[in-house]
Amino acid sequence: MAVKKNRLGFIVAGLLLGILIAAIDNTIVATAMGTIIGELGGLDQFVWVTSAYMVAEMAGMPIFGKLSDMYGRKKFFIFGVVLFLIGSMLCGTAHSITELSIYRAIQGIGGGALIPITFTIIFDIFPPELRGKMSGMFGAVFGVANLFGPLMGAYITDYWHWRWIFYINVPLGLIAFLLVVLFYKESHEHSRQKIDIWGAATLVGAVVSLMFALELGGNKYAWDSMIILGLFAAFAVLFIIFLLVERKAEEPIISYEMFRKRLFAASSAAALFYGAAFITAAVYIPIFVQGVMGGSATNSGLILLPLTLSSVVASQVGGILSSKMTFRRIMIFSATVFLLGMFLLATITPETSRLVLSLYMMITGFGIGFSFSVLSMSAIQGMELRQRGSANSTISFLRSLGMTIGITIFGIIQRNDFKGQLTEKLGGAVQNIPANADPQHMLSPEARALIPPQVMEKISTALSVSVDHAFLWALIPVFFALVSVSMMGAGRMQFAKNK
Hints:
Elements (H helix, E strand, L loop, with lengths): L4 H36 L6 H25 L1 H20 L4 H29 L2 H32 L4 H4 L1 H15 L13 H20 L9 H23 L7 H4 L2 H30 L8 H4 L1 H17 L5 H19 L8 H27 L4 H42 L12 H4 L2 H5 L3 H33 L14
Helix pairs in contact: 1-4, 1-5, 1-7, 2-3, 2-4, 2-8, 2-16, 3-4, 3-7, 4-16, 5-13, 5-15, 8-9, 11-15, 11-16, 11-19, 13-15, 14-15, 14-19, 15-16, 16-19
């Protein structure tokens, strides 16, 4: 699609702002959650604030991606911005955790449209020689969000009010809205097609069931409870029905035809495994620093600074290299570095210095960063215009699904291992520690000051060993990511004219 240069900058600015508010939202909200609970109450329900957003976002991604193929990117990007802003304003007015959770779901639906459609628009409006550079820039937004989100959330909560973490989205979103409305013109025609209602309904039902089972299992309900088992059963049944429905649908939400393309199938699998391993590093490095090294929970953004900055650099480098070599070559290097980084993280101990830990984080982040830009491009490469939205939304969906499954599985491993280590080191005294104790809260500076030094040393060692084991287990998805990218074939950026 040809776009005049005097409009291109405004379009990019609008897209960047749109994806930034969607990417940074969860990190800001997580930082302010303690203050929100203190004012609204609902300690036993706060998990729904995050779950509602994630469920709505994940369920919406493949649906909005497909709709953008059918009816145009612009209208659904605008729809995503408007719905996200409506949800943000409503969140700022919430007077209970239940209200906040409902409004977060509205936000999540908007976010489910923003993220995949933004990357698809980039592929539509930029020529092949610039796609890598722009994808690297937009991929870096996620690293910036992880870095500045917690810092911004802490500042706004402390010096303004927690409600402003939602209101701050409004001016940024309005600017994005105006820039895209005024300057982005779609030139291609879209034909009305039959909407796959049954596919959408069964996909949403399956995702909702799986997400709630993973979020509530082991927390609010036991894993073997009838509610959790019922949710897993509902997921299995609805997902099987979804697969059967998609085989016969005229315009399926997720087309099997896309997975027949080697490059797309391998990229999708890699996104799933990258997501599962990445979230493990992002969650447990701060816990290690706080619980073992005695750092503060309020500077979580600074703790991850080496990992974040190296991933931002790698995202840019990956985008540039995509115009020079095959996707497989880039991603094999990425996965190998990622594998090395996760292995090194699995060797950290209470004696590990912050400098050494920072070096390990930089290696891990550099390995991760390539996936943010390269996999988005490789998934769309070779797709016709009518398939690009669906392809990009599918890979975004699988990355998010991998993160959700990863943090659930490795969270169970770490918690059980931590409990076992405590039992071994403290004996009967461990009975005084709640079974669902969160080490990130239990080992805050305030809590550490109340624990005798000899006991604190044993707890820190137990936590260190449990985090190491979580990183070791996380090597499995990194290995499968390496296997997946090795199957990408000789696909590379095509410089032929867009279809």
